[in-house]
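Researcher: Re-running this chain for the archive, since the previous output was lost when a drive failed. Same request as before.
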Amino acid sequence: MLATIACIILSFFFPQGTLGEGELVTILTPYGLVDQFGVEVGQANSYFFYIPLTLALTVTFIALFNYAKRKAQMRWLQLTTLLLLISIVLQALYIYQTKSTFEALPFSVGLGFILPVIGIVGVILANRFIKKDEELVRSVDRIR
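Model: Regenerated structure tokens:
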């Protein structure tokens, strides 16, 4: 879960991708479009996909501190997965919209788009190991 939290936090700071190549590079940051020198080229409305990311971060923290109740923790993590999927879809729409504006420029995906996907993998693994831990506790209870 800590890896998922780190991925979500880092996705607020890394760019979603780059448009162009060579001297004419426009970076698609979470807060707008900037050129390679950091000068703002255009304002893009990208805040709508940060709402599910912020909610996913909050829900993951709730799940992290809810370690005594494994069933509830697994439900919180399922909600985190859903929120991260919503965020990825909204990011893809944002990238598609921006890319359609600059059709002639080639696009490459950035780390800010990949980090929520890595976060989903972390949530799935955490859910799997929490489930295994719950099964182990139940089997020990049966032995007693």
